[in-house]
Amino acid sequence: MSATAGQAAEGVRSLADRFSIEPGMVVMEMGYDDDVDEGLRDALIERCGELVDEDTDEVVDAVLLWYREGDGDLFEILVDALSPLGPAGVVWLLTPKAGRPGHVEPGDITESAQTAGLQQTSTVNAGKDWGAARLVLPRGARAKR
């Protein structure tokens, strides 16, 4: 393997690591369109296998939710994302970065997440055009699921 190929593989690993996705996890994808970051998707698929769509009957470990301003009511979409989510699951809300078409204001994310019963715990750089917010159920709510 060349140094360049090794560096590329390392970059793929670190990108998947940022999302704490492990082999064998079931990851549901919502909001896929032609503008998503294919490099991120490929890294996650390489780590966990195929992504399931929102029609799955499986309990999922994580939701990869691509959302742009104008995609509909964020609160309602987050509630839909919670339906198949396991008690320790996480929603990764991916939104276009500031200055990109479809950018979502951070206050709108916070408000919608809180209204849906979620807490934002961190944000990560998800690629050239996308940022991601890690949303989880509060500890007390996890026990009730």
What does the model show?
There is one protein chain. The protein has 145 residues and is α/β, with parallel strands linked by helices. It has one domain: Vaccinia Virus protein VP39 (Rossmann fold, 3-Layer(aba) Sandwich), CATH 3.40.50. It is 36% helix and 26% strand. The chain has 5 helices and 5 strands. The protein has helices at residues 3-18, 38-48, 74-82, 106-115, 139-144; strands at 27-30, 60-66, 85-96, 119-125, 130-136. It has a 5-stranded mixed β-sheet with strand order 1-2-3-5-4. Strand 1 (27-30), helix 2 (38-48) and strand 2 (60-66) form a beta-alpha-beta unit. Helix 1 (3-18) crosses helix 2 (38-48).
Task: Please outline the helices and strands.
Blueprint: H1 3-18, E1 27-30, H2 38-48, E2 60-66, H3 74-82, E3 85-96, H4 106-115, E4 119-125, E5 130-136, H5 139-144
Parallel strand pairs: 1-2, 2-3
Antiparallel strand pairs: 3-5, 4-5
Helix pairs in contact: 1-2
